[in-house]
Amino acid sequence: xxxxxxxxxxxxxxxxxxxxxxxxxxxxxxxxxxxxxxxxxxxxxxxxxxxxxxxxxxxxxxxxxxxxxxxxxxxxxxxxxxxxxxxxxxxxxxxxxxxxxxxxxxxxxxxxxxxxxxxxxxxxxxxxxxxxxxxxxxxxxxxxxxxxxxxxxxxxxxxxxxxxxxxxxxxxxxxxxxxxx
Length: 181
Prior knowledge:
alpha+beta, two-stranded antiparallel sheet, about 60% helix, rod-shaped
C-alpha cells in the first residue's frame, strides 16, 4: 500500500514538473528578455526575445522555463516574463493599428488595381490575337486576289522579252545588210 502511494506521488511530481505537451506562450510587457543556455542568470545568452514573441514551452517550474523559439533555438527564460496570451495593448499600439488599417486599405486598392490590370492585359492580348488573325486573312485574300494578276504580268513580261529579242535580231539583221549591202 505504501509502495503504491509513493508511486502515485512520484508520478504526480514528474507530471507536474515537465508537461507532456508543449504549450505556446508569449513574452509579456514591452521588454527584451534574454534566452539563456541553462537555468540561472549566470548562464550565457543564446538569444533574445521581445514583447509579443511566440515561444514554445517545453518544461519548467516557478522560476525558469525551457522554451523553443520559432527558429528552433532552445533555451531558458525567467518564468515571470511568460504569459498565455498577448494583450492587445502589447500586440499593437493605436498608432500601429491605424497604420495597419491604412496599409490594409492600400493593399486592397493594389489588389483591385492588379485585377483590373490583369483583365485589361487579357483583353489586349485577345485583341492582339484577333488582329493577327484578321491580318492573316487579309494577307491571304490579297494574295488570292493578286495571284492571277501576278501570273498575267509574268506572261506579259515573258512576251515582251521575246519581242525585245526579236527586235534585237531584226536590228542586227538590218545592220548586217547595211554594212554589206
